[in-house]
Amino acid sequence: MPLDVTVAAQRFAALDLLSTLAVVVDAQGCIVFANAALEGAVGLSRRMLEGAEFAPYLSAPSLLRAGLDTADGQRPSYAAMSFDTGLQRPAQDPLFVHVTVTAVEHTDLRLIELWVLEQQARQDREERLVEQAQANKELVRNLAHEIKNPLGGIRGAAQLLEMDLESKELKEYTQVIIHEADRLQSLVDRLLAPHRHPHQLVDLNIHEVCERVRSLVLLEYPQGLKIRRDYDISIPEFKGDRAQLIQALLNIVQNAAQVLSEKVCTGDAEITLRTRVVRQVTIGRQRHRLALELHVIDNGPGVPDHIKERIFYPLVTGRDGGSGLGLPLAQTFIQRHHGLIECESMPGRTDFRILIPLP
């Protein structure tokens, strides 16, 4: 018995909350329900889509028809099918999508989900960043603890040895040992810093954080650098750790300013701080209704190709004298807010994108 259109609209209304394109079809492949994302993608209203066969909207309709035959919700064990194809759109180029077909259990209906391939690639990359940052955090914390204890012993032994030495020349060697031990201790302290301080949440405005970072960096670069503002002032306040967010953003902006050193000398170095609200975003496999999107965009030479995939690894840097800790620490601080930092870079434009869920 066909499902009434009104009943279908009520039953599958939750699909309208997804940014994923979704359509429900009957056993013959005719559209019973299309969500808002699919309406927007094909440029046709739900009323125009309902009742029509969905297969002709795909570049490979035979694959969908095979998938409809495979997925059977009336059987206890039913299969799902997935494939890549194009979504045909009137007066527009096809949209390349990844399609999955699954049965709606205990009915003859099929749920067809379509992920835009670019969007799917982004989600895969986000998941890799989250997993990578978690692995880095554990590695760094364990390594720092392993280094700290013997380091203290080395420094102490050098101090005791120095007390028994009369030769000034020999004492210079113990001073080198003590100085290098102190330098390594400072590095270890920075590695452990995110794990030592409790998460202190307060109500904050992201633009106050941006303005604080902007003023600090401009004090360091009073000439030759412009930091432009492009703020969405409607972004609501949210709970966050002010000090950690300032430090995370400062690390990114300072990093951008440092790679712009040549342009600073010629007076055309530019960094843009841009804030926006984005809806229905996925961060680490978790869906969020609203999120803050903060971009740090510079017009520098771009991230070197050989480290593009590793810039959030500890001790990886593209600058002489860089510690390689700024970006990993920034990623850690943002992840403590259930967010994520991504980077897209090419010569002339590098964009660090910070995502933080909003209430």
Structure in words:
It is a single chain. The strands form 3 sheets. Strands 2-1-5-4-3 form a 5-stranded antiparallel sheet. A hairpin with a 2-residue loop joins strand 3 and strand 4. The chain is an alpha+beta fold and 359 residues long. The protein is built from 10 helices and 12 strands. The protein has helices spanning 5-11, 36-42, 46-49, 61-70, 117-163, 168-196, 206-220, 242-259, 261-266, 326-335, and strands at 21-25, 31-34, 81-89, 92-103, 110-116, 202-204, 225-230, 238-240, 269-283, 286-298, 340-346, 349-357. Helix 5 runs antiparallel to helix 6, helix 7 (206-220) packs across helix 8 and helix 8 (242-259) packs antiparallel against helix 10. The two termini are 42 Å apart.
Measured between the Cα atoms of the first and last residue, the distance is: 42 Å
Structure classification? alpha+beta
Mean of residue pLDDT?
82
Task: Note the run of SSEs as H and E.
Answer: HEEHHHEEEHHEHEEHHEEHEE
Strand order of the largest sheet: 2-1-5-4-3
The beta-strand count equals 12
Q: What does the overall shape look like?
A: elongated
Poorly predicted runs: 73-78
Radius of gyration: 27 Å
Name the beta content range: 25-35%
Describe this structure in a few short sentences:
This protein has 359 residues and is of the alpha+beta class.
